[in-house]
Amino acid sequence: MAAARVYVGGVRENAKARESLAAGDITEAITAYDRSLHWYLPGNPTMHETAASLIDIAHKSEYEKDLDTALRAWRVLRSGFYAATWLTVPGQKIIAQCDSEIARLVGLTAEAARPGSGPEAQMRELAILKTPVGPNPAWSSLAVLAFFGWIASVVGFIFRAFGPTDEFFRRPAVLWGFLFVTSYALWMISLARA
User: Which CATH class is domain 2-129?
Assistant: First the structure.
Protein backbone atom coordinates (compact mmCIF):
# COMPACT_ATOMS: atom_id res chain seq x y z
CA MET A 1 0.00 0.00 0.00
CA ALA A 2 2.77 2.42 0.92
CA ALA A 3 4.71 1.54 -2.23
CA ALA A 4 1.64 2.30 -4.34
CA ARG A 5 1.24 5.66 -2.58
CA VAL A 6 4.88 6.55 -3.26
CA TYR A 7 4.59 5.53 -6.91
CA VAL A 8 1.35 7.50 -7.42
CA GLY A 9 2.85 10.54 -5.66
CA GLY A 10 5.81 10.56 -8.02
CA VAL A 11 3.60 10.14 -11.08
CA ARG A 12 1.31 12.99 -9.96
CA GLU A 13 4.21 15.37 -9.37
CA ASN A 14 5.64 14.50 -12.80
CA ALA A 15 2.26 15.28 -14.36
CA LYS A 16 2.15 18.63 -12.53
CA ALA A 17 5.66 19.40 -13.74
CA ARG A 18 4.75 18.64 -17.36
CA GLU A 19 1.66 20.88 -17.05
CA SER A 20 3.82 23.69 -15.68
CA LEU A 21 6.32 23.25 -18.50
CA ALA A 22 3.50 23.37 -21.07
CA ALA A 23 2.27 26.59 -19.45
CA GLY A 24 5.79 28.04 -19.59
CA ASP A 25 6.26 28.13 -15.79
CA ILE A 26 9.78 26.72 -15.46
CA THR A 27 10.07 27.61 -11.77
CA GLU A 28 6.96 25.62 -10.84
CA ALA A 29 8.04 22.75 -13.10
CA ILE A 30 11.39 22.48 -11.29
CA THR A 31 9.57 22.58 -7.94
CA ALA A 32 7.21 19.77 -9.01
CA TYR A 33 10.13 17.71 -10.30
CA ASP A 34 11.85 18.28 -6.96
CA ARG A 35 8.82 16.88 -5.15
CA SER A 36 8.71 13.98 -7.60
CA LEU A 37 12.31 13.04 -6.78
CA HIS A 38 11.39 12.87 -3.10
CA TRP A 39 8.73 10.23 -3.85
CA TYR A 40 11.53 7.72 -4.29
CA LEU A 41 10.90 4.02 -4.71
CA PRO A 42 13.63 1.68 -5.96
CA GLY A 43 12.95 0.81 -9.58
CA ASN A 44 10.45 3.63 -10.01
CA PRO A 45 10.62 4.79 -13.66
CA THR A 46 9.57 8.34 -12.73
CA MET A 47 13.05 8.97 -11.31
CA HIS A 48 14.64 8.58 -14.74
CA GLU A 49 11.94 10.66 -16.42
CA THR A 50 12.38 13.38 -13.81
CA ALA A 51 16.17 13.33 -14.17
CA ALA A 52 15.95 13.57 -17.96
CA SER A 53 13.48 16.46 -17.73
CA LEU A 54 15.59 18.41 -15.24
CA ILE A 55 18.71 17.90 -17.36
CA ASP A 56 16.76 19.15 -20.38
CA ILE A 57 15.58 22.22 -18.44
CA ALA A 58 19.15 22.92 -17.32
CA HIS A 59 20.54 22.69 -20.85
CA LYS A 60 17.77 24.84 -22.35
CA SER A 61 18.12 27.44 -19.60
CA GLU A 62 21.86 27.64 -20.11
CA TYR A 63 21.37 27.96 -23.87
CA GLU A 64 19.00 30.87 -23.17
CA LYS A 65 21.68 32.42 -20.88
CA ASP A 66 19.55 31.86 -17.75
CA LEU A 67 22.34 30.45 -15.60
CA ASP A 68 20.39 30.80 -12.34
CA THR A 69 17.61 28.51 -13.57
CA ALA A 70 20.12 26.04 -15.02
CA LEU A 71 21.99 26.00 -11.72
CA ARG A 72 18.76 25.46 -9.78
CA ALA A 73 17.78 22.53 -12.02
CA TRP A 74 21.14 20.82 -11.51
CA ARG A 75 21.04 21.43 -7.75
CA VAL A 76 17.49 20.10 -7.44
CA LEU A 77 18.46 16.99 -9.37
CA ARG A 78 21.53 16.39 -7.23
CA SER A 79 19.77 16.95 -3.92
CA GLY A 80 16.83 14.79 -5.02
CA PHE A 81 19.07 11.79 -5.56
CA TYR A 82 20.84 12.37 -2.25
CA ALA A 83 17.47 12.69 -0.53
CA ALA A 84 16.52 9.28 -1.97
CA THR A 85 19.48 7.61 -0.27
CA TRP A 86 18.58 4.48 1.63
CA LEU A 87 20.91 1.46 1.60
CA THR A 88 22.62 2.93 -1.45
CA VAL A 89 22.75 6.30 -3.17
CA PRO A 90 20.76 6.05 -6.41
CA GLY A 91 21.91 7.83 -9.55
CA GLN A 92 25.64 7.97 -8.84
CA LYS A 93 26.46 8.81 -12.47
CA ILE A 94 23.83 11.56 -12.53
CA ILE A 95 25.17 12.99 -9.27
CA ALA A 96 28.69 13.08 -10.76
CA GLN A 97 27.31 14.88 -13.83
CA CYS A 98 25.47 17.33 -11.56
CA ASP A 99 28.65 18.02 -9.59
CA SER A 100 30.64 18.92 -12.69
CA GLU A 101 27.81 20.99 -14.21
CA ILE A 102 27.13 22.90 -10.98
CA ALA A 103 30.83 23.67 -10.57
CA ARG A 104 31.10 24.76 -14.20
CA LEU A 105 28.06 27.05 -13.90
CA VAL A 106 29.31 28.53 -10.63
CA GLY A 107 32.59 29.24 -12.41
CA LEU A 108 30.76 30.92 -15.31
CA THR A 109 28.71 33.02 -12.89
CA ALA A 110 31.81 34.08 -10.95
CA GLU A 111 33.64 34.87 -14.21
CA ALA A 112 30.76 37.09 -15.33
CA ALA A 113 30.75 38.94 -12.02
CA ARG A 114 34.51 39.30 -11.75
CA PRO A 115 36.69 38.39 -14.73
CA GLY A 116 39.47 35.96 -13.87
CA SER A 117 37.75 34.42 -10.86
CA GLY A 118 35.88 31.67 -12.73
CA PRO A 119 38.42 28.81 -12.65
CA GLU A 120 39.10 29.27 -8.95
CA ALA A 121 35.38 29.40 -8.12
CA GLN A 122 34.78 26.29 -10.22
CA MET A 123 37.53 24.33 -8.47
CA ARG A 124 36.36 25.48 -5.03
CA GLU A 125 32.74 24.51 -5.79
CA LEU A 126 33.77 21.12 -7.16
CA ALA A 127 35.81 20.42 -4.02
CA ILE A 128 32.76 21.23 -1.89
CA LEU A 129 30.48 19.05 -4.01
CA LYS A 130 32.89 16.11 -3.92
CA THR A 131 33.03 16.16 -0.12
CA PRO A 132 31.33 12.97 1.07
CA VAL A 133 27.85 13.50 2.44
CA GLY A 134 25.68 11.23 4.46
CA PRO A 135 25.66 9.61 7.84
CA ASN A 136 28.60 7.86 9.40
CA PRO A 137 27.86 4.12 9.03
CA ALA A 138 29.42 3.17 12.38
CA TRP A 139 27.44 5.74 14.38
CA SER A 140 24.29 4.90 12.42
CA SER A 141 24.65 1.20 13.22
CA LEU A 142 25.28 2.01 16.86
CA ALA A 143 22.14 4.17 16.89
CA VAL A 144 20.05 1.25 15.65
CA LEU A 145 21.56 -1.14 18.20
CA ALA A 146 21.10 1.37 21.03
CA PHE A 147 17.48 1.93 20.01
CA PHE A 148 16.74 -1.79 20.19
CA GLY A 149 18.64 -1.95 23.49
CA TRP A 150 16.45 0.83 24.82
CA ILE A 151 13.27 -0.99 23.75
CA ALA A 152 14.54 -4.27 25.24
CA SER A 153 15.43 -2.56 28.52
CA VAL A 154 11.93 -1.08 28.81
CA VAL A 155 10.39 -4.51 28.24
CA GLY A 156 12.88 -6.05 30.67
CA PHE A 157 12.06 -3.41 33.29
CA ILE A 158 8.33 -4.01 32.95
CA PHE A 159 8.56 -7.80 33.19
CA ARG A 160 11.45 -8.12 35.68
CA ALA A 161 10.93 -5.22 38.08
CA PHE A 162 7.30 -6.01 38.79
CA GLY A 163 5.88 -9.30 39.98
CA PRO A 164 2.52 -10.88 39.16
CA THR A 165 0.93 -9.40 42.28
CA ASP A 166 2.20 -5.85 41.75
CA GLU A 167 5.24 -6.39 43.93
CA PHE A 168 8.32 -4.33 43.10
CA PHE A 169 11.75 -6.00 42.84
CA ARG A 170 14.41 -3.45 43.55
CA ARG A 171 17.54 -5.23 42.26
CA PRO A 172 16.12 -6.05 38.77
CA ALA A 173 14.58 -2.56 38.64
CA VAL A 174 18.00 -0.96 39.21
CA LEU A 175 19.65 -3.18 36.59
CA TRP A 176 16.98 -2.65 33.92
CA GLY A 177 16.67 1.04 34.80
CA PHE A 178 20.42 1.44 34.36
CA LEU A 179 20.26 -0.35 31.00
CA PHE A 180 17.32 1.88 30.02
CA VAL A 181 19.17 5.12 30.81
CA THR A 182 22.46 3.91 29.30
CA SER A 183 20.95 2.66 26.03
CA TYR A 184 18.84 5.81 25.72
CA ALA A 185 21.88 8.05 26.24
CA LEU A 186 23.91 5.98 23.76
CA TRP A 187 21.06 6.18 21.27
CA MET A 188 20.89 9.99 21.52
CA ILE A 189 24.66 10.41 21.32
CA SER A 190 24.95 8.14 18.29
CA LEU A 191 22.09 9.95 16.54
CA ALA A 192 23.84 13.26 17.13
CA ARG A 193 27.12 11.91 15.75
CA ALA A 194 25.72 9.93 12.84
Answer: mainly alpha
